[in-house]
Amino acid sequence: MPEALVSIGVAGALGPAAIAHIAAVVESAGFHALWVNDAPGGDSLAALAAAAAVTDTLVLATGVVPVDRRPARSLVDAVRALPQERTVLGIGSGSGGVGALARVREAVGVLRDQTRVRVLVGALGPKMRALAATDADGPLLSWLTPDAAAAQSATAHELSPDAHVALYVRTAVDPAAVSALEAEADRYGGYPSYAANFARLGIRPGDTVLRPEGFGPGIRRYRAAVDEVVLRAIVAGDDYAGFVEAAAARLG
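Now predict its structure.
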């Protein structure tokens, strides 16, 4: 497998103006994509529209839009307004349980029928990962060790050799941000769906993050495991530009 692409991920709650500024820095630093999550009060598509206006080649991606809260048909106009050739729409079921697979499968169909963007699916369990590989353009994984990511990536490629496997990795490059990184890991470890997934895989949340002292060997292992590594920026304060520049320097 070729060495994975490396991208940057930030929170949609930062707002379009801040994300546009970050996007320009990300493109200048040579990263593949900017991923923006979607949450109430943090519209990822509005942020990507702002980022599109100040970039030329940067891939623009959402990670992820929950389709229980934002059904695919309600997204189509906003998605069409983005540069189709460099947009990736990451979607997820939102709330799980009965109907989650059908809800995501329908959303993938709508988006593929009515837009020209690539569609990745945020997936924890094996059924959703299989759907992501066979019905969409691939899975968007999260909170995995390099070994677990490699195993899940191999399964996706067995189902669909052309599947694109992306992985969010929470990352701190500044020692001052490590406490925030640890708090983020602890928070996700308390969510029932993630806690069950950690238990199923036999890993701890803190095993799946990149800290400043282990960034070099860690990123090399992740890049050998998947097609794209998304460094989900964890910063002290709001120095996202500093994160991008420091990460680029460490990648060489």
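Strands lie at 5-10, 33-36, 59-66, 87-92, 118-122, 139-142, 166-171, 228-233.
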